[in-house]
């Protein structure tokens, strides 16, 4: 199950969302050649990723911020940027450009801190923007619970695009992060589930003042949870999107 777009057009150009996507892609391209050498890429991650054990020793605090703009591979980057592209424009539209940027950074820093306290002795470098993007998703859930999101469902060789309410898609995603967090050792490589959970909750909480300013429960009553403007419509058709190949042998890191 993978979201590919929503039916919630924004009313103005999301300059910050686009800038964040460009920054993430540009930074990834700048160090991508290092990924051909395990020692070089791990040295790079040592300097710029979030390593909880270093923080516990009083070092590496800059990793809370810099890790938000690093990724562990193409699929990691593309997946995160797709989620930011789908949900970021509407949050930026409602918050305004500068406030949205502060919101994004605050959610990312909070998510990184939650990950740190979940495994303060972990020596595994943590990289990825999805803690901040989880915050965007949490805010989106509060403001537009019934906005339609098209998800791509893949069952072996069957591909289907299905529009579902945002609260179902985001609720399932959040539940999967919680189950993943309890089912995975916090000091192992892989997905930083608790960063996702923390970012989502922090983003939802930071959006509450905006939601209350819009009217709170009465805002939901007026819109019935839908976006307060006509939804975009798409012609849904069968998809022949190819699957990705086997995972490459890359150094162990934790992705968020």
Automatic annotation (TrEMBL):
SUPFAM superfamilies: Rhomboid-like. Keywords: Cell inner membrane, Cell membrane, Membrane, Transmembrane, Transmembrane helix. InterPro entries: Peptidase_S54_rhomboid_dom, Rhomboid-like_sf. It comes from Marivita geojedonensis. Residues 62-210 form the Peptidase S54 rhomboid domain. One of its GO terms (cellular component) is membrane. Its main location: membrane. It is a multi-pass membrane protein. The keyword Ribonucleoprotein does not apply. Residues 224-256 are annotated as: Disordered. Pfam families: Rhomboid. It comes from the Bacteria. This is Peptidase C54. GO terms for molecular function: serine-type endopeptidase activity. The chain crosses the membrane at residues 15-32, 68-87, 99-118, 124-144, 151-179, 191-212. It is found in: Membrane.
């Amino acid at each position: 199950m993978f979201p590919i777009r929503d039916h919630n057009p924004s009313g103005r150009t999301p300059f910050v969302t686009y800038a964040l996507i460009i920054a993430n892609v540009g930074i990834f391209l700048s160090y991508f050649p290092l990924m051909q050498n395990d020692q070089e890429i791990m040295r790079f991650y040592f300097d710029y990723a979030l390593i909880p054990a270093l923080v516990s020793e009083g070092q590496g605090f800059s990793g809370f911020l810099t890790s938000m703009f690093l990724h562990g591979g193409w699929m990691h980057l593309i997946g995160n940027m797709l989620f930011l592209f789908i949900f970021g424009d509407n949050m930026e539209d409602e918050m305004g450009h500068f406030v949205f940027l502060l919101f994004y950074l605050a959610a990312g820093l909070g998510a990184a801190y939650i990950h740190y306290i979940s495994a303060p002795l972990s020596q595994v470098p943590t990289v990825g923007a999805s803690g901040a993007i989880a915050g965007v998703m949490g805010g989106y859930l509060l403001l537009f619970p019934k906005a339609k999101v098209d998800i791509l469902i893949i069952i072996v060789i069957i591909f289907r695009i299905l529009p579902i309410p945002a609260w179902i898609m985001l609720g399932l995603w959040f539940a999967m992060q919680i189950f993943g967090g309890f089912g995975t050792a916090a000091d192992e490589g892989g997905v930083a589930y608790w960063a996702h959970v923390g970012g989502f909750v922090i983003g939802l909480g930071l959006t509450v003042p905006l939601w209350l300013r819009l009217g709170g429960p009465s805002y939901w009553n007026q819109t019935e949870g839908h976006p307060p403007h006509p939804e975009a419509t798409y012609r849904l058709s069968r998809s022949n999107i190819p699957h990705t190949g086997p995972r490459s042998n890359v150094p162990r890191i934790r992705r968020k």
